[in-house]
Batch of 3 targets.
Target 1
Amino acid sequence: MFAIETAGLGKSFRHKRVLDGLNVHVGQGEIYGFIGKNGAGKSTTMKLIAGLMPADAGEIRVLGDLLVPCEPHPRVGALIEQPGMYANLSALDNLMAKALVLGLVDARRTCEELLEVVGLADAGNEKTKRFSLGMRQRLGIALALLGSPDVLLLDEPLNGLDPEIARDIRSLIVRMNRERGVTVFISSHALDQLERICTVYGVLRDGGLAAELTADEVDQACARCLIVRTGEAPRALAALTERFPRAHLVALPDDELRIDGDIDAEEVGRALAEEGIAIRELRRSEGDREAFFVGLMGGHDGPASE
C-alpha cells in the first residue's frame, strides 16, 4: 500500500491542461522530492491531494483510501504555498485555534510540544506578524503536524531561506520522518537542498511523470559515464550489450543510452559504425545532477518551481 497514489490525474485551468494522466507512487516512510519546471503543476498536484480542489479526471488514494473530491484526508497535514496564520495572534494561539477546530485532547500541551519540536518554544507568545520567513515556515510545519498526520505535504518549504535556516528546516523534516515515521511529499526548485534529504524523486513533465527514481538510482545515473544518442536506440543497446558484456547499459529518454564501466568512447563509436548505426552524439558525462534533472524536466525554462 502506498502512502500516496494517483492514477490518471488530470486538471485544467481555462482550457489549459496542467496535469494530464499523472501517476504518482509515494511509498510509506519515504521523503519524496517532487520536481518540475515553473507552472508544471506541482502546487496543483499538492492541492488536489490535500483536498483543496477537485480533479477533472483520475483518482487519488491516500494510505489506501480513495479520496472524495475536496474532502481532506484526516491523516494528511499540509503546508502549501504560504503558511496560513493569523498575523495578530501569537504562534501558540495560531496553533491553539487549529487544535480546537480539530478537537484535540489536551490541545495546549500538544501545541507547546510542537513549538518545541520546530524550534519556536521561545517565540510562542510573539505575534506572527513579527516573524521572519524562516519562523513562519517553522510555524507552518507545526500547523501541518497538528493531529499527528502520517503524510506531510510541503510545497517549497525551503524557498527564500538563508542557508542556516534551510539546514534547520531540512533537519526538522528528516527528524519527523525518522522519529515519527511521517511520509513526506516535498516540492522545491532547490535541487541541492532536496538531494540532502530525499529518498525518492518524481519528475513532472508535460503534465505527467517523466520518471520516478530512488536516491540510489539518481546517484548511479549521475556517476561518470558515456552518453550515446542515436536514431536507433534499441539496436544500439543490443549491439553494445553484445560487444561490451561487462558494461552496464541503460536506456534513457530521447534515444539516449548510458554506459557505465571502463569503456573507451572510440571503441563505442567503432562498434556502432560496424553495425551501421549513426551516432548523433557521444559524450562523457561528469555527473552533473542539475543537468540530469533539467534534462528529465524537458529543458531549462527557468527555475524549477511553480
Target 2
Amino acid sequence: MSPPLGRPEPIIGSPQNARVRLARSLERDRAARDRSRTYLAWGIHLAQEALAAGAEVREAFVAPGLEQVAEGRGLLERLRGAGVPLARATRRILESIVEGSGDQGIVMLVRRPERDLPGLMASRPTLLVAAHGVQDPGNLGSILRTARALGAEALLALPGCADPFGSRAVRAAMGAQFTLPVACADAPSALAALRRAGVALVAADPAGAERPTEIDLRRPAAILVGSEGGGLPPPILEAADHRVRIPMAPGVGSLNVHAAAAALLYEAARQRGFRFR
C-alpha cells in the first residue's frame, strides 16, 4: 500500500524484497501469470494507456526519477488518484524485474480479465484473429496491436503461441491487451465454436487459391494465421472456408506472420468502409 500523503514511500533496494520477488515471478513464469490472472506492463506510455482504458492496476513499482519530469509527476498523480498502490524502487530493482524497464521508471502489475472461449463468443464478434503457433512474443504483440487498430474485436491464441500476456507481447501490443478481448483455446474447440456462430474461417496460406479481394470479409470472419516458419497446420487449413494467398512480387516466398495478418485485417477494414464498432 502507498503511505499516507505527505510521507515519502520507502525506496525498495533489495532484489529479495517479497513484492519484487512476486513481480519477478510474473515476468518469468507463465503459470504464475495464469494462476494469479496478473501480468506485467512497463513504461510511461503503457501506464497512461492502462489508466485511460480503466485497466485494473494492482500495484506499480516506480523509480524516484519519475518524479523529476513533468510527465512522470502527472502520471504519478493519476495513479494515486486511481488508488493504485505504489512501491518506490531503484532503477536497478525495476531492471531486475523486467529488462529494459529501468530507464522508463515504472512497472505495473495488471489484472487480467476473466475471459474464455465461451465468454468471448458470447460477445458475438464479427471480426477476430486466431493465431496458431506464433512463438515470437513480438510478432504476437504486433498482431494484437494491429488487430485492435483495424477493428478486430477479439484474438484467440491457439496452441503453440507465446503468452499474449507476457511482458514482451504486452510491450509490442502497446496496450491492446487493456481493451481487446483475448482468450486461449485449443484449435478444435475454437474452430467448432466459430463455425457454430456462423463465422467464416479465413486462413492465410501462401499456396491458397483465393486473393483477399475475392472473398466477402464484410460478413463475420476469423482471420487464421500460423507459425513464422511452417504456417498453419493441415487440419486447420482443411477446416477453413477460404485459403487466402496475399499477392507478392516475384521472388518473394512469404510474409512475416504479422505482415500477413495486417494485410488481411486491412482488407477486412477496407471492405467494411473503415467503420469500426
Target 3
Amino acid sequence: MKHTAELERIVSRFNGQKNFIDKLTTFLSSNNYLVTAIPPNDDLYSWSQNLFNLLFHFGKTDLSVARVYEGHVNAIKLIKDFGTESQRAFYFNEVSKGKIFGVWNTDAPKNPLKASFTETKMELNGSKIFCSGGYRIDYAIVTYGSSSNRQMAVVPINSRTSVQENYAFWQAMGMENSRSTELTFTNYHIEKNVQLGNPNDYELQPWFSGGSIRFCAAQIGGATSLYEETIEHLRRKGRHENSQQLDRISQMRVEIETGKLWINKAKEVYGNANRYSSPEIVDFSNMMRNVTTTICEKILLLSTKSIGLPAYMNGHPVEQKLRDLMVYVRQPNPDMVSHNIGLYGVNQTME
C-alpha cells in the first residue's frame, strides 16, 4: 500500500492520544482514501479490489485505523444505497472536502436515543455507545426509534456543543485509538431532511450482515501483522529455525494464506453482488466471519506460544497488536452466525 510509512509514523507518534482521529482523518483525506470509499457507478469489481486491499493493509498497520475507516466506508455505502439524489450529492461533496463519517447504531441501555419533531425540525436526546471515532467524527449515521420502526439520520458531530463525549466509557483492553466512546445528545436540533431512507432500512439484507466481510479483511490484516512480527522476534532471538518454532510458523502461515483466499472471494462477492442472491451473500459473510475468528484466535495463540512472556510486556512490537486483535475480533452474535451457517447448509440439501 502507498503511504504505509507515513501512516506508521502517525500511529507511532500519536498512539494513545486524543487527537489520533484528527491526525488520521488528515492522512486519509490528503491521500484520497476518504473519497475512495464512494462506490463508482460502474466497474465495481476493480473498486472492490482496491477497497479490500486498503482494509487489509490498514488492519495490518493498526486495527484502530481500520476500524474507523471501515465505519466511514459503511456510512458511505448506506448513503449510496438509501440516500436521495440530493443527499448523495451533498454528503459525497463533504467527503471530497475531507469530512469523515461513521455509523453508530448501539443505544445506551438506560438512555436510548430518541427523536421528537416539529413541522420542519427534529430534536435528538439520548446516548449512543461504541461510537468509533467519537467526537472527532464529522458526520455520523445514527439510528433511533423502536426495534420495529428504526430510522437512520445523518447528523453532524464535530464541534457540536449539544453532543457530549464520555471518553471514560471506552475501557477495553485494546483498540484504544478507535475512541469508541459514549456520545450523549442533549436538545440536539437539526432539519428533518437528515433522515436517511425509510424505517428499518438499516437492517435490510444482504448488507446488514454482508458488510461484515469488510471488517474481516481488516482483522486478517491484523493477524498477518502478528504473524510477521512473531517471525521477526524469533529471528532476533536466533530461534527462527528451531523445529518447534517452524511447526508453529507453518501453522500460522497456512491460516494467513487461508484468510487471504477468503479476502479474494470477498472482493469478488462485493464487487459483483448482482450475481448473487441476498441469502447467498449473507451466508458467505457468515462463513467468512466464522473462519476469520478462527484464524485470528489461532494466530493469537500460536504467536504468544512462540514468543512467550515478552509478548505481554509493554513496548514489545506485538503487545498492542495482541490486545487490539483480541478486542476487535469479538463481534456481535457469533453463536447465531454459526447457527445460521449450519441452517443454510441443511436447507440447501433439502432443495
